[in-house]
Design brief:
By secondary structure, this protein is mainly α. Helices cover about 85% and strands about 0% of the residues. The protein is built from five helices and no strands. Helix 2 packs antiparallel against helix 5 and helix 4 runs antiparallel to helix 5. The two termini are about 25 Å apart.
């Protein structure tokens, strides 16, 4: 909200105001997905996470760190285009890794608990889906940043 107000008050911005608000919306979507995931952990009373879930969570932390590194570089987008592209490329690769881990984790839990405890399988499946959505939202942020780099470098 503060950024949106600042954008409205600022005459000159490093790039189009609509692009700024789109990027903020994408970042908000990532935060919302993280909050939904935390809420699901509470709702389903998850106290033990599958190894693949922990791996995806580590990817989320990496994607957030890379996004945080990219944000101040947007002030001088033309000067930082190469570094921004490197960061967004890493986030996109992380999303691909998360997809692979997600698929492997679902397969493993289906084989281990799918037949004997369908409810527990559904709960675990939901958690995998939510974690993977968080990474997808960070990829959306990366794609928006990459688009800005292409448009302004």
């Amino acid at each position: 909200r503060e950024v949106l107000h600042a954008v409205r008050r600022t005459f000159l911005t490093p790039f189009d105001r609509a692009a700024i608000t789109d990027l903020i919306a994408r970042m908000d979507d990532a935060i919302d997905e993280m909050q939904h995931t935390a809420g699901a952990v509470d709702l389903y009373e998850i106290d033990e996470f599958e190894p693949e879930m922990r791996d995806i969570a580590a990817i989320i932390v990496d994607a957030a760190r890379l996004t945080a590194e990219a944000m101040p570089l947007l002030r001088k987008i033309a000067d930082n285009g190469v570094r921004l592209h490197e960061l967004t490329e890493r986030i996109v690769r992380l999303e691909g890794q998360a997809d692979e881990i997600h698929a492997a984790g679902l397969k493993r839990i289906f084989q281990e608990i799918g037949g004997r405890d369908p409810l527990q399988f559904v709960v675990r499946q939901e958690m995998f889906k939510r974690l993977e959505r968080v990474v997808d939202r960070f990829e959306d942020v990366a794609n928006d940043i990459d688009g800005l780099v292409i448009d302004h470098s």
